[in-house]
Structures are given as structure tokens and as C-alpha cells.
Design a protein that fits this description.
It contains 24 helices and 33 strands. The protein starts with a helix and ends with a strand. The chain is α+β, with helices and mostly antiparallel strands. Strands 18-17-16-21-20-19 form a 6-stranded antiparallel sheet, with helices on both faces. Strands 3-2-1-5-4 form a 5-stranded antiparallel sheet, sandwiched between helices. The chain has a 5-stranded antiparallel sheet with strand order 7-6-10-9-8, sandwiched between helices.
């Protein structure tokens, strides 16, 4: 609907043509675009010019082509151009040219001319230029020549149809637009748009008052749907002002709906309006189909995001009941099925118990158990089982009585697995014959995978809470028993709240030593192969003994000798010389101390599911042996520490997963651009969610390197999806829209249609020529890059522009700079200057100081030096940070 929009936003023909040529230059990459309209003499005069050079623009504005120079066919050879165009092409050094006729029917009413320096126009750009030529013809029909010359009165219905055809891909509300345009163009009292559904015609849009007898309109649509005629005219008799003629047109072939007009008078058979209505109906059908396609894609995208949001919210709650209830409710809503249930397996994985259900009662767990048997058998490879007709499917004959009792007509089941462990089943019981689309199957599989992890996390969290509550009650009952145990409880509770594995390990070793007044403690955990227990934390109370005891306690422990005595029993083992020798080389150095009256013990760190490692305690004072109360206290804190370690380990795995997901969206290697040293560093924050920073490189056909760096709002799954979209936009647009301003304008239009409300993407895009050193940059709301001259002070390259996804039709200015050998351009996300320490920002002043101090380093080392300087100031990063350095060599 480009012309329709321009006619309301720009005054007159020249304003509309100016907008058309500017947009044409943007989408085709042309340096010069000229729109000409024919004169009575047979020539053509320039009515709108787009050119970066004011001199070229002044030369072309108002220029004329002789009658013989107005082409009837497309031209793309520079030598074929008229003299004014050839002169401009020589001035700007153009190598690509395109001159197209502007047609109104069979008549040539003008030309559209494009020139550019970087090569010929490809087929896609030619199609865009042809569409612009059609818009120019449509504008001329809507406004006339705009110079006072007489043109035929516009065919309003034809213009409306042309407007629909030109803008149908944007018709999110196509039925309303069809009704409004048809009513306005024909002067109808009312216009109705019907959509054919399996259950019958449905009114999709209405412009004007509803006819006094709406049943008449519906009956006419039903007759038109059954009759072969594409157009029908019927007389409507009514006592009020709604009397007249009802015109019904079929939309599409085969018909997908109908258009009805209530006219004041019945048109005679030869009335041109009837032919125009037929043409308009074709255009309207195309608009409706395009609108439906767009709505379908939007629905699928919204459904995907909704499911991912559900999983994120459920995981964040860490409540098993909330997780399951949320999953059941949303799956029911998104798949349109009232009956949904989640079943969890018992400890031996032999029976399923309903953990959350909707609109279900009775022994439906028997159905789920049979579905699980099929999932573990014939349907194992697919991972999803669908039974559209449960009552007649022989695979469910064994539970037919339950199906009939509960009224289950169909079933869809997906197993819930964590790694190789089966923990339950997600089942949907829709109406008979309901089959999932491919998209729905993929979404259900993805949801089941994430739901299984969420359930496992919630179970662990609730188990930790339960054990913590039990510990609290026990300590409250023994409040007067021991100051040591009270302090021990407070410390062990702090373990369960820790999320850093490294800090938790250090805290366990340190707390054991300080609380139990032993001399040393060592934590050992399995190595990567699981064959040995290796020291992960050692703490010694007396600094004078630190080196000696660390050396003794830092030896690896083979697993096999430990398993019979410690791993199987799960009980603490008090060491003596014989048992220390039996444990192997890790504890053999303790034998001389044990023989002199010192004491030591090995305590397993275990959860209900697995052995996490061992805790070795050493007391060098014979008067403070590790036995009785001390050993009980050590075993108590070891149990809490094991839960804390498991929790911290789970957090670390999730953090590594988030980092892995983030890095999968980043380039695997730096590009090798001749004349440039390229370095990039991505530093993730301390938070577990996926961040929104993204950068990428593309080597352009002319040898330049295109670089993009940006930041997506938000964190988590949504941010990952938007990062992937930003990377896709860069990869798909960079080669067609290589110039920074052109690229950002095109990217903005895509992001605007894909990103959610209230979200946006800041993006910095630049191209750099390693041979010439020319760097061209444009920004969409992103911090500007800093240019570091060899031996000079850093300075920002000033570029401004609105972030992507906020408003359409944006123009992005470009900044240019030349990099000499040794100069560098540094790009970064806001996580670098906005890092904080006690509320104080790292800031641009510290950034410039770090740049000046490290400007001599290679690109990669310079980027790493900036991150290290920021971490030295702020400690852990509160937000992700990406840095790209381009240094000319």
C-alpha cells in the first residue's frame, strides 16, 4: 500500500514521487534514481531525483529527455542511455545502469532511471525497480500529472485494487481493508466480506451499517457459493433506506470467500462497474490470501515464543507443582485440547502416577502406562506417539475399558527424559481425528525436553528445601546442645544457597576446619573419566603448616580401592595405618602421622542419587581426635555440603549450557582479512541466562570486511531467539545491502516485523577495506566505536540512529574514517562501560585509558586486555560483554 500511504502523508504528486525514488535507492543500492513523467511533446521531464551529491541532483532536477530518448523497453547498457544520463554516469563513475518505462496500460507515461557505482543490478533489484515503476504509474493515476495537464478522471475502484495488489503482503487486516476500499470506491451503502469455513460462510469484515435483513445477505452468499457464477446481482426490498441492489462476487479460484456490496441502485448489465468489480475481486482475493499467510506465520511464531516463555517461567519458579500446572494449562491452551496430564514415574520406573491433570478423572494412568510401553517399543525412534482414533486402535485394546469409561477419543504422548533417565510422560487427549502439524510436534518435543529438566530441577530444589526444613526442626529441638552445632547449621545453610561450584568447594573445606577445629580438610571429586578422585579444595588452619599439608593432601585417589569401604557403605571411615595403606597412595603419606597419635577420617559426600566425592579430615593434635561428636558433626555438615555441591554443580552445568548456546551464535573463528588484524572476545556475565550480545563477520565480494556487533534486549530463551534472528538478518542482508546505512535501514524493516512489542536491538555495522584503510560505519542506537591512532588518544567515531525494531522507514547516516597502519577501530557492547563497582561505572574514561595503555598490542590481545581491565575494576561482570578490534597492519 505504498502509494496509499504516501498520498496521506505527502502533499501532491512530486512529494509522492520523491518518496518512491528515495525508497527505490534504499532497496536497490542505487546511487542515483530519477523519476520522469511524459510531456505532451512526447519527451519526459524529471519530476523527482535522489542523489547523494547536491551537484548531481541539481543537474538532473527538471532535465528533459527528447521524444526519441523515452524507451518502450528496459535498458541496462550505459551506451544506450540518453546524453544527460550518460554524462551523470561518467561523473559518478557508474558501472551499473537501469532505465525502465513507466506504463499506464499500453501507454508509456514516463521512465524510472537508476545508476550506481558498484556493478550491475541483479534480478531481485530489477524486480524491486519494476515495482517502483508501477508505483509511479499508480501515483500518476491518483494525482494526475500534477502540472495542471488534464488526465482522465481516476478509476477509484481500479486504484483501490491496485493499492491492494501493491500492499497485500502487509495486509494484517486484509478483510477490513477490502471492505473499506470497495465501499469507498463504489459509493456502496455497505460492504461485507465473507470467509468460507467448513461450517459455512463467516462474516469477516463489514464497512457501513449492517443490512436490515442480514439473513438476505447470508442467503445470497450461500447461493453464490453453490452456483458457478462469479458475480450475482439481486434486488433487496426493504421499508427503510437499505433497499437497493445486493451485488455478490466470489473471491478467488477456487473461491475462498465472497464480497457483497449494497448499492442504492441496481446496475444495468452493461455497466462498466461490473467489469471493474470483477477485476477488484481478483485483487481482493490475493490480498486476503496474503493476509492469511501472514497471520498464520505470526501465529506460529507467537506459539513458539509462548512455549519457550512457559518453560522459562516454570524453571524460574523451581516449584514442582507450579511447573507441572503451568505446563498442563499452556499445552491445553496452545493445542486446543481440554484434557492434558503429566505423569511421573515411581522410583523403580515401573508405574506412572498423575502429577498434574486437566479435565481428567478415573484410572487414566493405565492409558498413560500403555502409551509409555509403545513409546519405549515401536515408537522409540520417533520420540512421540500419536493415536488419532484411540477406540479403534488395536495397540490400545488392553485399556479399551478405561478409554470408554473416561471418554478418551485420541492420544498424543511424549516421554520426559533427563539424559538417559525416564522420569515421566506428557500426554494430550484431544478429540477423535485430531492430528498434530509438524510444527506442533516439534514444539511438543521441545517442551517435553525442557519440562523434564524443569521437573528435575524442581525436585532437587524441593528436596533441598525439605532437608533444610528437617535440619531446622532438629536444631531447634537441640538448641541447647552445642554452640558448635548451631554455628555448623548456619554455615551449612549458607552452602545450600551458594551457586558457585568453586566457591562452594572452598567454603566447605574452610568451614570444616574452622567449625570442627581440625587442622586440615581436603575435598576430592571424580575426574573427567571417573577413574580417580582428584583434590578440588584444600584448607589448612595454621599457615606455617600449609605447604606441607597441602602437598600430602593433594594426591589423587584411585576409585577402585575406595569403593568397597566408602562408596558402598556411605559411612565415615576413621583411618588407622592399615586402612590408610589400603586406600592407596593418596592416603599413604598420612601413615607416619597416624602412627604418632594423629587422627584422620574420610567422609563420603553423597546425595540420594550418587556419590559426589570424599572429604578427608586431619587432626595433628592427639588430644583432639576425630571421633564421636566431631565425626557426627562432620558427617552432618558433609550431608548438607553434598546437597550444596550438587546444587552448585547443576548451576554450573546450566551456566555452561547457557554459555554454549550463546557462543553457538557467535563466529567460531576470526576472519582472515588481508591488511587487517581482527580480534574478538566475548565475556559472559555471572548470571545463568543467555545474554543478548552478538557479533559476526562477512567477507564482501569486493574484498571489504563487513562487521556487525549488537545487543538484544532481555535475557534467556527470547534473547537467544532474537540473537539468532539478528545473525540471520546480518548474514542474509550484508551482501545485498553492503553499505552500512542501507543495511541498517533494510534490517530495521525485518526486525520491526519479527521482534516482540517493547523490545529492540541496538546494532553497529561497518565495512573496512584492508588495502585502502577506509572504514564506513552506521549505528542503530549502539555505542559508537572508538578509533585508536598509533601513538594518539582514542576518540569516538560519532554515528547516530534509532535502534532496530522501534519505528519503520528509518534513515541511518554513515561516518567515514581512514585507518593508517597501526590504527585500530574498537567496537564493544554496553556491558563494558556500564560494568559497576559499588554503584560506580567503569565508564568511557577508564576505557580510553585502557585503550591508550594497550594500543600497541595485537587485536586479540587488545580485546582481552580491555576485558581484564574491566574485571579488575568490577569483579564479576553483571552483563555480557562483546569486544571486536579491527587493526590495520
Amino acid at each position: 500500500m505504498a502509494v496509499a500511504r504516501e498520498s496521506t502523508a505527502v502533499a501532491g504528486l512530486d512529494g509522492t514521487l520523491g518518496s518512491i525514488v528515495a525508497r527505490t535507492a534504499e532497496v536497490t543500492g542505487a546511487d542515483v534514481v530519477v523519476a520522469r513523467l511524459a510531456e505532451e511533446s512526447g519527451g519526459a521531464v524529471a519530476r523527482a531525483v535522489h542523489a547523494a551529491s547536491a551537484a548531481v541532483r541539481a543537474e538532473l532536477e527538471g532535465s528533459r529527455l527528447a521524444p526519441g530518448a523515452v524507451p518502450a523497453e528496459e535498458r541496462d547498457e550505459l551506451l544506450q542511455l540518453a546524453r544527460p544520463l550518460r554524462h551523470v554516469a561518467e561523473q559518478i563513475g557508474a558501472s551499473g545502469a537501469l532505465q525502465l518505462p513507466v506504463r499506464d496500460g499500453a501507454a508509456v507515461v514516463g521512465t524510472l532511471e537508476l545508476l550506481r557505482r558498484r556493478g550491475d543490478f541483479d534480478e531481485r533489484e530489477r524486480r524491486l525497480a519494476r515495482a517502483a515503476a508501477e508505483e509511479i504509474a499508480l501515483a500518476r493515476r491518483a494525482f494526475g500529472n500534477g502540472d495542471g495537464s488534464a488526465v482522465a478522471a481516476p478509476d477509484l475502484l481500479g486504484l483501490a485494487g491496485d493499492a491492494l495488489a501493491a500492499g497485500s503482503d502487509e495486509a494484517a487486516r486484509a478483510p477490513d481493508q477490502v471492505a473499506a476500499l470497495a465501499a469507498e470506491a463504489t459509493g456502496a451503502r455497505a460492504c461485507l466480506v465473507w470467509r468460507y469455513e467448513p461450517q459455512g460462510p463467516v462474516l469477516a469484515a463489514l464497512s457501513g451499517p449492517l443490512p436490515a435483513a442480514p439473513a438476505i445477505a447470508l442467503e445470497a452468499v450461500l447461493r453464490a457459493q453453490q452456483a458457478p457464477r462469479s458475480l450475482a446481482v439481486e434486488r433487496v426490498e426493504a421499508a427503510d433506506a437499505t433497499a437497493g441492489a445486493l451485488v455478490t462476487l466470489q473471491l478467488g479460484e477456487p473461491p475462498q470467500g465472497a464480497l457483497q456490496l449494497l448499492l442504492a441502485e441496481e446496475p444495468h448489465p452493461g455497466d462498466p462497474l461490473l467489469d471493474r468489480l470483477g477485476t477488484f475481486a481478483v485483487r481482493a482475493a490475493h490480498a486476503l490470501r496474503a493476509g492469511e499467510r501472514r497471520q498464520t506465520l505470526a501465529l506460529e511464531l507467537e506459539r513458539t515464543r509462548a512455549l519457550l516463555t512457559i518453560v522459562g517461567q516454570a524453571i524460574a519458579q523451581l516449584s514442582l507443582a507450579h511447573t507441572l500446572d503451568t505446563a498442563v494449562e499452556r499445552v491445553s491452551e496452545l493445542l486446543g485440547s481440554e484434557r492434558v496430564a503429566v505423569y511421573l514415574a515411581d522410583e523403580w520406573q515401573q508405574r506412572l502416577e498423575p502429577a498434574a491433570e486437566r479435565e481428567l478423572a478415573g484410572p487414566h494412568a493405565r492409558v498413560a502406562e500403555r502409551l509409555l510401553e509403545l513409546l519405549l517399543g515401536p515408537a522409540r525412534g520417533r520420540g512421540l506417539l500419536a493415536v488419532p482414533y484411540a477406540g479403534s486402535d488395536p495397540r490400545l485394546s488392553g485399556v479399551l475399558d478405561v478409554l470408554e469409561e473416561i471418554g478418551i477419543e485420541a492420544a498424543v504422548a511424549v516421554p520426559l527424559r533427563v539424559r538417559e533417565d525416564l522420569i515421566g510422560v506428557l500426554a494430550v487427549y484431544p478429540q477423535a481425528g485430531r492430528e498434530l502439524t509438524g510444527n506442533e510436534e516439534q514444539l511438543l518435543l521441545a517442551l517435553a525436553a525442557q519440562l523434564a529438566v524443569a521437573v528435575q530441577n524442581a525436585r532437587l530444589h524441593e528436596e533441598t528445601k525439605r532437608l533444610g526444613a528437617e535440619r531446622t526442626r532438629a536444631l531447634e529441638a537441640e538448641v541447647d546442645a552445642s554452640r558448635r552445632l548451631r554455628a555448623l547449621y548456619e554455615i551449612s545453610r549458607s552452602f545450600s544457597e551458594s551457586l558457585s561450584l568453586e566457591r562452594t568447594l572452598e567454603a566447605v573445606a574452610r568451614t570444616i576446619v574452622e567449625s570442627l577445629e581440625v587442622d586440615a580438610a581436603a575435598l576430592r571429586m571424580p575426574d573427567g573419566r571417573g577413574s580417580s578422585l582428584v583434590p578440588v579444595a584444600v584448607h589448612v588452619r595454621d599457615e606455617r603448616m600449609t605447604e606441607a599439608l597441602r602437598t600430602i593432601l593433594s594426591l589423587p585417589q584411585p576409585v577402585n580401592p575406595v569403593r568397597p569401604t566408602v562408596f558402598r557403605s556411605g559411612d565415615p571411615l576413621v583411618l588407622d595405618p592399615r586402612s590408610a595403606a589400603a586406600l592407596g597412595p593418596a592416603h599413604a603419606p598420612l601413615i607416619p602421622f597416624l602412627e604418632r597419635g594423629c587422627s584422620a577420617a574420610v567422609i563420603p559426600l553423597a546425595t540420594q542419587a550418587e556419590i559426589l566425592g570424599t572429604l578427608t579430615l586431619v587432626s595433628l593434635d592427639p588430644d583432639r581426635p576425630i571421633e564421636g561428636e566431631t565425626l557426627d558433626a562432620a558427617a552432618s555438615i558433609a550431608g548438607q555440603a553434598a546437597l550444596a555441591l550438587d546444587n552448585a554443580r547443576l548451576y554450573q552445568q546450566q551456566k555452561e549450557f547457557a554459555d554454549s548456546m550463546q557462543r553457538s551464535l557467535l563466529p567460531r573463528a576470526q576472519p582472515r582479512a588481508e591488511g587487517l588484524d581482527v580480534g574478538a572476545v566475548y565475556a559472559s556475565s555471572a548470571h545463568m541466562d543467555v545474554g543478548g550480545d552478538v557479533y559476526d563477520f562477512v567477507e564482501l565480494a569486493d574484498g571489504r570486511l563487513a562487521v556487525v556487533l549488537g545487543d538484544v534486549t532481555g535475557h534467556g530463551i527470547d534473547a537467544a531467539a532474537d540473537m539468532a534472528m539478528a545473525k540471520f538478518v546480518f548474514r542474509s542482508l550484508a551482501r545485498e545491502h553492503s553499505e552500512p546505512g542501507d543495511f541498517l535501514a533494510a534490517a530495521n524493516e525485518i526486525v520491526l516485523g519479527e521482534i516482540g512489542d517493547g523490545k529492540f536491538i541496538t546494532l553497529l555495522y561497518l565495512t573496512v577495506d584492508g588495502h585502502e584503510g577506509e572504514l564506513v560505519c552506521a549505528s542503530a542506537g549502539h555505542p559508537p566505536p572508538r578509533v585508536v591512532r598509533a601513538g594518539g588518544e582514542p576518540e569516538p567515531l560519532v554515528v547516530n540512529g534509532l535502534a532496530l525494531g522501534i519505528a519503520g522507514a528509518q534513515k541511518y547516516d554513515e561516518a567515514r574514517v581512514r585507518l593508517e597502519p597501526g590504527d585500530a577501530a574498537v567496537l564493544y557492547t554496553d556491558g563494558l562501560p556500564e560494568a559497576r563497582r559499588d554503584g560506580e561505572l567503569y565508564g568511557e574514561a577508564r576505557l580510553d585509558a585502557a585503550l591508550a595503555a594497550n594500543a600497541h598490542l595485537p587485536a586479540e590481545e587488545l580485546a582481552e586486555a580491555l576485558v581484564e581491565d574491566c574485571r579488575a575494576f568490577a569483579g564479576e561482570l553483571g552483563d555480557d560483554c562483546a569486544i571486536v578490534v579491527l587493526k590495520r597492519v
